[in-house]
Task: structure prediction
Amino acid sequence: MNKCLERLYNGLIKENPTLVLMLGMCPTLAVTTSAMNGLGMGLTTTVVLTLSNVIISLLRKVIPDKIRIPAFIVIIASFVTVMQLLLQAYIPSLYTSLGIYIPLIVVNCIILGRAESYAYKNPVFPSLFDGLGMGLGFTIALTLIGLIREFIGGCSVFGYELGWFTPIGIFKMAPGAFFVLAVLCAIQNKAKIIGAKKGKDVSKIQSGCGHDCLNCDVAGCGDRKENKFQDIEITQEDIESTAKINIQAVAEALKDKSEDVEYETIEVKEEK
Amino acid sequence: MLQIKELLVILISSSLVSNVVLSQFLGLCPFLGVSKKINTAAGMGGAVIFVITLASAVTGCIYNYVLVPLNMEYMQTIVFILVIAALVQFVEMFLKKFVVSLYNALGVYLPLITTNCAVLGVALTNVQKNYGILTGTVNGFATALGFTIAIVILAGIREKTEFNDFPESFKGMPMVLITAGLMAIAFCGFAGLM
Result:
């Protein structure tokens, strides 16, 4: 149970996908024109993330390692389709305002990232809570950004007009999204600088997609960097077989030179 | 004649007026990540044009000739994402084997594009707007062209401002985002074209 709570805390605060890791920026910027849209998008993503985490965790021993990514994508895409149809049927207003960004949840890197780095390696319950925590962290961040943009850009909160000041319309338009994210990033940078001075571990901040995609391995998208080293396990067998190959290669190279040497190489083989 | 006019309107509106990155926020990761140098940005743009045009033609065919006759339109998301992933793999293998010069220019960017939401976004927009195969392909090309324009301009600005003296906490990504925001304002001006 403790582990489940730890996963929730991890997703909500410690490794908040949007505010700390900077993952899934496309939907974050696109749908946060109002707090309601942010909330809707966040909850939809949470449902998909939790369900896909559970299913992937259940199937983790069945899915072969080599085709795991396509398998993840099919599972995620199925849930996204289900959610899309449900929203269309029961909350048509949200369906129309989110539009194309609902099917695009498939390519949200948070979902694939959690599947790859957590659900594929862990049992069902922790995976469920991991999905829930990450999803709710995403929801809170999106609602918060939506709230800020709606307040400055429309002077309203969750659709209620306040009328306190003349709204700055640009914050509801596309450029406003970039500005809000820029300020968010600057706050993160500040936190990083202060944290580094105090000697805290700040390596997680902005470790998501803010980096150069070409150097993704180096930047460490999620936990991928660790996996890379886990995958390579050198066994005694490996060492022996490499040694064998080396000796054979030397022997073959020497074979061509002269008959005297050939005699020696045979000796080497026998010794081994 | 009417067809050509319609295609021109799509070309301008998709590439400039509703620019894929600056007003629809699709493909942000490569836009922010691979825009440090003009050369790499142009390479990425070229690869994106190639893949999106091809992908929108293929997904258009699959939608109109397979999914619609079978009444399986609701499967579009699953089918499209798998087709796009497979397509990028095949294109990479094909280029590596047969068109080595093109592979050398675009090769490194191709795997990155599989996860680019712009590709899936265009395929879905084509369906949503009821574009046919030809109009869909033109829309795909125009969208990718808009992406290339935006990323090359951003790379140019980033090269110029690389050593500017920003406040400490605004260095790096925040400044890139503000630049992108200012570009988005500029691109809002294109709305007058339509």
In short: The radius of gyration of chain B is 18 Å. Chain B touches chain A through 49 residues (CB under 8 Å). The mean pLDDT of chain B is 87.
